[in-house]
Amino acid sequence: MNNKYKILVVEDESNIRNLVSAMLESNGYRALLAASLREAKLMYDSHVPDLVILDLGLPDADGCDFIKYVRGSSPTPLTPIIVLSARSNERDKVISLDLGANDYVTKPFGEAELLARVRASLRNHRHSADSGKLPGGKFELNGLEIDYDARRIFLCSEEIKLTQTEYNILAFLSEHCGKMLTYSAIIKAVWGERCEDSSVKKLQVNMANIRKKLGIKPGETKYIINELGVGYRMDG
Ligand code: CA
């Protein structure tokens, strides 16, 4: 089979590398392996993978350098990157997301979680490739519909009335559906402001209103997933 998605796994710990590789291979993906930044660049340039799973702690460099390389100087700068991060290291997550990683998975992780993130990132990438940056069009996710031309939102065909700001937040999340967006990325896109405590608070208040209007109960992970201290992701 030549039409399998190629996923580059960059991880210096061989047990994790082999585990991730086995998970991917048994689910119909082709895993390419690298144990250092040097190997990762070689594999990336010669195989042009569809997605990268990246450990941040590499022996010869910080994994963030690889994100910079892919986003900055590689021929395929939009390739989705999922970061493998140590538990509760919020700073690393935010830095890697702001450098352009699509998402992160916290170690230790389960097969179902990793595969869900892989599918979401591949789906998001296809969606962006299809729609490009053209205005207009529609977005649809499990009964949630956004009409970008009319700036209107529908839930199961019923219109939901949002304020301008609420609409801008939801539209921004939908344009990056499946991607984890940091507070600062959303704040910059919606208000053009730097991320400060007051702007995070403002974002959280708006997000609470959006969730209420969409009928999402507290703690429910539907449409909008909140990663505390990091940001938000839209997903089914
Ligand atoms: Ca490591």
What would your notes on this structure say?
It is a single chain. The chain has 236 residues and is α/β, with parallel strands linked by helices. It folds into two domains: 124 residues, Response regulator (Rossmann fold), CATH 3.40.50; 104 residues, Winged helix-like DNA-binding domain superfamily/Winged helix DNA-binding domain (Arc Repressor Mutant, subunit A, Orthogonal Bundle). Helices cover 44% and strands 22% of the residues. It contains eight helices and twelve strands. Strands 2-1-3-4-5 form a five-stranded parallel sheet, sandwiched between helices. A hairpin with a 4-residue loop joins strand 7 and strand 8. Helix 6 packs across helix 8. The longest helix has 21 residues. It is globular and about 50 Å long. The protein starts with 5 loop residues before the first strand and ends with a strand. Bound molecules: calcium ion. Calcium ion binds next to loops. Calcium ion (CA) binds next to loops.
Brief write-up:
The protein has helices at residues 14-25, 37-47, 63-73, 90-99, 111-131, 164-175, 183-191, 197-213, and strands spanning 6-10, 30-34, 51-55, 81-85, 103-106, 138-141, 144-147, 152-155, 158-160, 180-182, 223-227, 231-235. The two termini are 30 Å apart. With 236 residues, it is of the alpha/beta class.
Q: Strand order, biggest sheet?
A: 2-1-3-4-5
Give the overall form.
Answer: globular
- Count of DSSP strands: 12
Element string (H = helix, E = strand): EHEHEHEHEHEEEEHEHHEE
Low-confidence region ranges: none
Give the overall pLDDT as a whole number: 90
Radius of gyration using CA atoms only: 18 Å
Structural class: alpha/beta
Helix % is 40-55%
CATH superfamily of the largest domain: Response regulator
CATH topology of the largest domain: Rossmann fold
Ligands, ions, cofactors = calcium ion
* CATH 2nd-level architecture of the largest domain: 3-Layer(aba) Sandwich
Q: How many H/I helices?
A: 8
Q: How would you sum up the major sheet?
A: 5 strands, parallel
Count structural domains. 2
Q: Strand percentage, roughly? A: 15-25%
State the distance separating the first and last CA atoms: 30 Å
> What is the top-level CATH class of the largest domain?
Alpha Beta
